[in-house]
């Protein structure tokens, strides 16, 4: 039975497989068009994937028609459509995670390919034409793989990043195999419609990888939606720093490491005369002032630190692996940055300052709340000293 299935697999008609791939790509294009038009999640990426599937379907369709294709398409147009498909895919990969389209490099490869294909004759030995096409396709897919890997590593673990780019890498392998086939079997025809074992296996793999690739891209967009929702649950909607819940969790996790000799410090921050600013310039000005405060503080915050908003005009910074002296230096830089920052609302300048309270975690602290309490008391002492002051816990 297995021998019969294997024989049927290898004797499948390449034309039938080509048309199956074209129909699958057109169906995928329609789905991506619908997603681009009907959802707000990664619409640019969805549109790029719709165009890429449609262009690739067009390119393979021209291959299937062969000499019956219209003149412009018959003379290398189908190959340019296929290269254009992968150029659009390469441009759209960064958009899946919300980055700008990488259209410059994609366009450069497509234009270089167009010039090269014009220079390579379409008559006689077609292997150099195939090599030029698949080199361009491979380069675009390789760039897509690298870009996807870099972008994904910023959001998920390396192992998951590698798993998610596997379909793109599989496409690269298929293109490389087609390129190498023109070298290791130079006497064999390069026409994908020719019935031979290599073409049949290659077309079956192309069909499978195309399905998996589209499914993976859909998973990436869904993952982006999940990550966006997760981010919204942990971020302050106004200032985009950690919200109270997320910051409390980070401080609690850091406190668990205290008994293992890992110190940390907290910096409590309260904007001075915030109620007066709201009463004088309005609540919209108050919101803008809070955002300006965060902009002034962020240059002083390391990647391992956590800046969060506790509520109103009160913020807190978690400083892992930092003692009291180090926290004082950080807080003083924050204070100076904020004091030197310019803030103006509808033509009315306003001096922004804040009071800072510092506390270092101690081994005898039963919980993170004890450290927060000391930092809070130090901040109120800074207020009592005239504001725009950094005060350490006694």
- The averaged pLDDT comes out at 85
Portion of residues in beta strands equals 5-15%
End-to-end distance: 83 Å
- Helix fraction? 55-70%
Large-scale geometry:
elongated
Q: Within the largest sheet, what's the order of strands? A: 2-3-1-6-7
Q: What's the alpha carbon Rg, rounded to whole Å?
A: 30 Å
Helix count from the secondary structure assignment: 14
**CATH class group of the largest domain:** Mainly Alpha
Unreliable runs, pLDDT <50, ≥5 residues? 1-5
The topology string of helices and strands comes to HHHHHHHHHHEHHEEHEEEHE
Topology of this protein?
Elements: H1 2-10, H2 14-38, H3 43-65, H4 71-92, H5 103-119, H6 127-153, H7 158-164, H8 166-184, H9 197-234, H10 244-256, E1 264-271, H11 274-281, H12 283-297, E2 306-311, E3 314-320, H13 324-340, E4 344-345, E5 348-349, E6 354-360, H14 368-384, E7 390-392
Parallel strand pairs: 6-7
Antiparallel strand pairs: 1-3, 1-6, 2-3, 4-5
């Amino acid at each position: 039975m297995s021998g019969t299935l294997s024989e049927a697999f290898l004797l499948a008609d390449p034309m039938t497989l080509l048309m199956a791939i074209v129909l699958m790509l057109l169906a995928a294009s329609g789905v991506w068009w619908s997603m681009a038009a009907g959802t707000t999640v990664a619409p640019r990426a969805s549109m790029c994937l719709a165009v890429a599937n449609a262009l690739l379907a067009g390119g393979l369709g021209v291959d299937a028609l062969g000499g019956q294709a219209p003149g412009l398409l018959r003379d290398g147009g189908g190959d340019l459509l296929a290269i254009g498909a992968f150029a659009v895919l390469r441009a759209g990969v960064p958009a899946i995670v919300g980055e700008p389209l990488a259209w410059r490099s994609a366009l450069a490869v497509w234009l270089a390919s167009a010039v090269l294909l014009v220079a390579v004759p379409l008559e006689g030995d077609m292997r150099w034409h195939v090599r030029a096409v698949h080199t361009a396709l491979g380069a675009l897919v390789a760039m897509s793989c690298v870009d996807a890997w870099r972008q994904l590593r910023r959001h998920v673990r390396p192992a998951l990043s590698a798993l998610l780019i596997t379909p793109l890498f599989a496409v690269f392998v298929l293109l490389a195999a087609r390129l190498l086939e023109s070298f290791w079997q130079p006497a064999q025809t390069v026409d994908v419609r020719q019935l031979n074992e290599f073409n049949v296996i290659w077309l079956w793999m192309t069909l499978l990888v195309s399905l998996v690739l589209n499914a993976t891209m859909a998973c990436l967009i869904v993952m982006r939606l999940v990550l966006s929702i997760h981010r919204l649950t942990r971020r302050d909607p106004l200032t985009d720093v950690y919200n109270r819940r997320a910051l409390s969790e980070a401080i609690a996790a850091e406190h668990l490491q205290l008994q293992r000799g890992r110190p940390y410090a907290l910096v409590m921050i309260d904007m001075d005369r915030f109620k007066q600013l709201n009463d004088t310039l309005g609540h919209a000005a108050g919101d803008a002032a809070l955002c300006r405060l965060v902009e002034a503080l962020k240059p002083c915050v390391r990647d391992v630190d956590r800046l969060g908003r506790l509520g109103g005009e009160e913020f807190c910074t978690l400083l892992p692996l930092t003692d009291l002296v180090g926290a004082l230096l950080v807080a003083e830089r924050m204070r100076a940055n904020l004091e030197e920052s310019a803030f103006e609302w509808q033509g009315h300048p306003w001096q922004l300052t804040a009071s800072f309270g510092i506390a270092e975690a101690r081994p005898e602290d039963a919980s993170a709340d004890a450290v927060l309490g000391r930092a809070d008391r130090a901040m109120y002492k800074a207020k009592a000293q005239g504001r725009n002051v950094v005060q350490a816990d006694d």
